[in-house]
Amino acid sequence: MYRQLASDNRFAVERFNLDLKDSPARSLEANRPLSSFPLAAVSLAFEEDVRSLAHIPLEMGAPTLRSERPDFPLILAGGPLAFLNPALMAPFVDLIWVGEADPTLSDLLADLHTHILAGGTKAAFLKKVAARPGVYAPGLSPLPVRRKRSGRSPHLSEPAWSCFISSKAEFKDTFLVEINRGCPYGCRFCAAGFVYRPPRRAHMSDLKALVEQADPPKVGLVGTALTDWPDLLPFLTWLHGRKTKFTLSSVRADGLTEELVAFLRLAGVRSVTLALEAPSERLRRAANKNLDTQAFLSAVTRCARHGVNHLKIYCITGWPGETDADYAELADFLDRIDAARAEGFGKKKVDMLITLSMSCLVPKPFTPMQWSPMASEEALEARLKQVREMVRPHRAFRFASDGPGAARLQGLLARGGEDLAPLVVSALDLGWKKALKAWPRDASADLDRERAKDEVFPWEVIDCGVSRAVLWREWGRYKKELETEPCPAAGCGECGRCGVEAQIGSTPS
Ligand code: SF4
Hints:
It contains 18 helices and 16 strands. The protein has helices at residues 2-6, 50-59, 80-84, 103-117, 122-129, 192-195, 204-214, 232-241, 258-266, 281-286, 293-305, 324-345, 377-391, 404-414, 421-430, 432-438, 443-447, 468-479; strands at residues 39-43, 74-78, 95-97, 135-136, 145-146, 155-156, 174-178, 180-181, 200-202, 218-222, 245-248, 271-277, 310-317, 353-360, 397-401, 462-463. Helix 12 (324-345) links the parallel strand 13 and strand 14 (353-360). Helix 2 (50-59) packs across helix 15 and helix 11 (293-305) runs parallel beside helix 12. The longest helix is centred in the middle third of the chain and has 22 residues, at 324-345. Residues 197-198, 487-488, 492, 494-498, 500-501 line the site of iron/sulfur cluster. Iron/sulfur cluster binds at residues 197-198, 487-488, 492, 494-498, 500-501.
């Protein structure tokens, strides 16, 4: 978004790092306050960031609530949260961009530019653009607003890449590039597998051109199913050949081939992350993880044999319908992982640390879990304690976990509606923890209940492309522990199963 707008000489675009404790924020470029701009645009990825969003109008000298801000400034929000649940942010923003940024976003802002110079009001502008594709003006747009999508399956024509590389960034000094968008597997808990459909993959030549242009010290490959990308090994080999370091996000165990692990070690990669996701085969089947247990153990052996120093394993707790038997199976599986690790070493005196990283399941909108109850804080605490104890006897294992309190907050926000605005406003001063304590409503009443089939959800002001009937059917298949086949490897438009393919022809590439 920054790139699109900053390269257009009609706009003066400056960047702000928002720090709620250090206000007012000043721009990096010209040290100007945010209040000197008529427009603030922000991209949101995480539910908790809505607190920062609510702070932006205050930085601009305006009330935080849209209803109390009849004229400029205009606040525009986008990013994954905007097409996961725009209702959460709607009380604070004037416009929401629903979906992937494309050139029509620049057109929208060029019209805003003309409108402001002509002395037009904010209300008149919002009325004028409310029905445009991809635009959600709360209270004005015809509903539902269809998610914007770029490119045709199976190719990702405009992969995302880092605009800025910084030693202060979360991924330090790393140039992030997007390998694939969407995911063919449709794990039932994963929002990225539904709201980014259809699955698309980047062309290696495009990524090479981006890396050559940026010439970064390190490249971070971002994607949902990295090992499904047929060019993964050729691309990594190319990076290694030009002496560019790289990192990978978590990989599927069945894609971690002998050749790939050997190459990763040759290139100096010390740490590998595998996603186990659920504690038992039964729950992995319910989650539609499509994971072969033996393939997972073979991947552990392979990592140990090739001298990987640190293996991280991701797992989730708090599954609807989970039982003690699922965790007894996990205890047994940890023994098998330990044995697979030892098998990899053979007689060699090497070591491989294994971190089992547990997180708490947060049911997300536009996934089959949108109807699901969330596990209570006590239940999550108890499971985490149980797994920590399970890990303890294994010398080479470490345990890490998320806090259940933070997960429950995210759960509340994730499926919350505009009625959560008072909680967000209160969190501006108090922080989330104290605001939740002072909140007169009982969060558990919302979090702990299973939703009815026909309940209308706050996020259904948008149409993510996957049909509600398909999501409901998948929730039913979760309960019956039935897997659903992944999307065909050749790309979307071939199976017609989820309803998203109908948009392909209508979205120009
Ligand atoms: S229509 Fe079929 S191939 Fe396309 S995203 Fe949906 S399930 Fe996958």
